[in-house]
């Protein structure tokens, strides 16, 4: 798939907004396009994490499997969402399974190359880190609400 | 024929026509109001005081179709002694009824605009009459987005109707749950994440939000982030009530009485005490 296609898809993601031409080109140079069929795993818990994903079309589920209780869907992500920061943070292992729920088009980025470019160019590194942090922060807020078990009557809830 | 009560303190006796179990702890009671002159008229968002004889009285939103005046629908979750007694009643038995009380959803103001309906858990109950009315007069509104969050797939209320609404081409309906097993193909995450996916004009759209207070605060924040002004966000609160008619002061916060100035409030009016700990 062509570099132009990567650039076009990337320009449509919230992550690329305000990145500036130079940084945008750097990020795009680390990416390629992949298509996942429903049920296909993009990442497995415990595996080495060397990529990060931006969803162009479709959706994925983040899952945790427990031998005793089965598989729990903890979150679903859709168009424009970024998946994974494990490529940036040691020990570089995925903490969940990521599974496509429907035909899903992804922008996939080479985390090792991206890290190298971020180290070489702090301006680029900061721009990418800031975007990832914003996304991690809003996910943290969402999870905070999710874990409150709000729809239970008050006395049944976790503190 | 049962006369219509004019005295707000005195309940009238109504019989239960049908009962439906919605989930493990939630039951719908259909009350027979056909003998009342003109049936039972109400506006979407209003509530009644339901009295389980000898046990107590509680405020419960009306969850049925405003056009069906011959019956009155209430959906009740068991949390304590009165709700337990009400949901334990059987068809043919009776309860006490006062109402309808309170303010209603701003369906007139939403005309010719995009509409966002954000419901969490039992919050779908007071919004359902608004959904019926909007869908019945669909051409009066622009884009209609319904967003509903439940705890798990088993806790989704009115599941058959939700599937029906989802099948319509003129409505965008999204459901999310807090957690699910692998047999669930829908969205997992908080209901506020659905707001980001909705298509609406933030300059004119009207939002109607109901659910637990923390959920409503987060929903308001997300709607504000998407550009919606506070005066076009409406919330329904379920602070505790007693008389229901502005006489006892039980629900008073500053100069606001939840029972008569609410339960549906414009957010900018509710904001001063909405997130305060002491109210
Ligand atoms: C305007 C309005 C509309 C309502 N609509 C509905 C409805 O459609 N369906 C429905 O099931 N319930 C509704 N409620 C809530 C319902 O009134 C309460 O659940 C009920 O009063 C509890 O009475 P109880 O005797 O069963 O429990 P109680 O013994 O009074 O309380 C049991 C537990 O529930 C908590 N509780 C009581 N009232 C509330 C409340 N309002 N919000 C949150 N927690 C509460 C108490 O703090 C206590 O922990 C509404 C409340 C209001 C104010
Ligand atoms: S409940 Fe009595 S004044 Fe509101």
Layout of secondary structure:
The complex is a heterodimer of chains A (159) and B (279).
Chain A: H1 3-11, H2 21-29, E1 31-36, E2 41-43, E3 51-57, E4 60-66, E5 70-77, E6 82-83, E7 97-100, E8 104-110, H3 111-120, H4 122-147
Antiparallel strand pairs in A: 1-8, 2-7, 3-6, 3-8, 4-5, 4-7
Helix pairs in contact in A: 1-2, 3-4
Chain B: E1 12-23, E2 26-32, E3 47-52, E4 56-61, E5 71-77, H1 81-87, E6 94-101, H2 107-110, E7 115-120, H3 124-136, E8 144-150, H4 159-166, E9 172-177, E10 187-188, H5 192-195, E11 206-210, H6 213-225, E12 233-236, E13 252-253, E14 256-257, H7 258-261, E15 264-266, H8 267-274
Parallel strand pairs in B: 7-8, 7-11, 8-9, 9-10, 11-12
Antiparallel strand pairs in B: 1-2, 1-6, 2-5, 3-4, 3-6, 12-15, 13-14
The structure holds flavin-adenine dinucleotide and FE2/S2 (inorganic) cluster (FES).
Flavin-adenine dinucleotide sits between chains B (47, 56, 58-61, 75-77, 79-83, 122, 125, 238-241, 263) and A (153-155).
3D architecture notes:
- The complex is a heterodimer of chains A (159) and B (279).
- Chain A is an alpha+beta fold and 159 residues long.
- Helices cover 34% and strands 28% of the residues of chain A.
- Chain A has one domain (3-144): Sandwich (Jelly Rolls).
- Chain A has helices at 3-11, 21-29, 111-120, 122-147, and strands spanning 31-36, 41-43, 51-57, 60-66, 70-77, 82-83, 97-100, 104-110.
- In chain A, strands 1-8-3-6 form a 4-stranded antiparallel sheet. A 4-stranded antiparallel sheet of chain A has the order 2-7-4-5, with no helix packed on it.
- In chain A, strand 4 (60-66) and strand 5 form a beta hairpin.
- In chain A, helix 1 (3-11) crosses helix 2 (21-29) and helix 3 (111-120) packs across helix 4 (122-147).
- Chain A is globular and about 50 Å long.
- The model of chain A has no long low-confidence stretch (mean pLDDT 89).
- Chain B is an alpha/beta fold and 279 residues long.
- Chain B folds into 2 domains: 12-101, Beta Barrel (Elongation Factor Tu (Ef-tu), domain 3); 115-270, Rossmann fold.
- Helix content of chain B is 22%, strand content 30%.
- Chain B contains 8 helices and 15 strands.
- Chain B has helices at residues 81-87, 107-110, 124-136, 159-166, 192-195, 213-225, 258-261, 267-274; strands at residues 12-23, 26-32, 47-52, 56-61, 71-77, 94-101, 115-120, 144-150, 172-177, 187-188, 206-210, 233-236, 252-253, 256-257, 264-266.
- In chain B, strands 10-9-8-7-11-12-15 form a 7-stranded mixed sheet, with helices on both faces. A 6-stranded antiparallel sheet of chain B has the order 4-3-6-1-2-5.
- The longest helix of chain B is centred in the middle third of the chain and has 13 residues, at 124-136.
- The mean pLDDT of chain B is 90.
- Chains A and B meet through strand 4, strand 5 and helix 4 of A and strand 10 and helix 6 of B.
- Flavin-adenine dinucleotide sits between chains B (47, 56, 58-61, 75-77, 79-83, 122, 125, 238-241, 263) and A (153-155).
């Amino acid at each position: 798939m062509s570099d132009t296609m990567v650039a076009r898809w990337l320009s449509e993601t919230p992550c690329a907004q305000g990145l500036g031409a130079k940084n945008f080109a750097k990020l795009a140079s680390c990416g390629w396009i992949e298509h996942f069929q429903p049920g296909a795993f993009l990442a497995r818990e415990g595996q080495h994490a060397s990529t990060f994903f931006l969803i162009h079309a479709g959706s994925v589920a983040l899952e945790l499997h427990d031998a005793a209780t089965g598989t729990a869907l903890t979150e679903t992500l859709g168009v424009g969402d970024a998946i994974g920061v494990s490529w940036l943070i040691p020990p570089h292992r995925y903490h969940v399974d990521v599974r496509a729920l429907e035909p899903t088009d992804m922008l996939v980025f080479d985390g090792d190359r991206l890290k190298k470019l971020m180290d070489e160019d702090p301006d680029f590194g900061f721009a990418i880190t800031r975007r990832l942090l914003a996304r991690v922060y809003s996910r943290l807020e969402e999870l905070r609400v999710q874990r409150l078990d709000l729809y239970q009557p008050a006395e049944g809830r976790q503190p | 024929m049962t006369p219509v009560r004019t005295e707000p303190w005195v309940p009238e006796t109504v019989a239960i026509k049908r009962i439906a179990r919605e989930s493990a702890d939630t039951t719908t009671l259909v009350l027979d109001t056909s003998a009342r002159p003109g049936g039972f008229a109400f506006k979407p968002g209003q509530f009644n005081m339901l009295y389980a004889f000898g046990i107590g009285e509680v405020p419960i939103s009306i969850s049925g179709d405003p056009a069906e005046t011959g019956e009155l629908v209430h959906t009740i979750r068991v949390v304590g002694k009165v709700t337990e007694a009400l949901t334990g009643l059987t068809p043919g038995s009776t309860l006490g009824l006062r109402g309808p009380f309170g303010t209603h959803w701003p369906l007139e103001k939403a005309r010719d605009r995009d509409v966002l309906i954000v419901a969490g858990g039992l919050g779908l109950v007071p919004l359902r009459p608004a959904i019926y009315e909007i869908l019945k007069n669909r051409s009066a509104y622009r884009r209609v987005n319904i967003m509903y969050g439940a705890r798990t797939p088993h806790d989704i209320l009115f599941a058959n109707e939700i599937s029906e609404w989802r099948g319509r081409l003129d409505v965008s309906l999204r459901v999310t749950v807090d957690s699910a097993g692998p047999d669930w193909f829908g969205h997992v995450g908080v209901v506020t994440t659905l707001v980001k996916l909705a298509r609406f004009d933030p300059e004119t759209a009207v939002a109607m939000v109901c659910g637990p207070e923390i959920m409503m605060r987060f929903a308001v924040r997300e709607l504000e982030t998407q550009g919606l002004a506070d005066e076009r966000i409406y919330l329904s609160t379920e602070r505790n009530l007693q008389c229901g008619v502005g006489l006892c002061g039980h629900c008073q916060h500053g100069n606001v009485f939840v029972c008569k100035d609410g339960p549906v409030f414009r957010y900018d009016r509710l904001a001063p005490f909405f997130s305060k700990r002491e109210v």
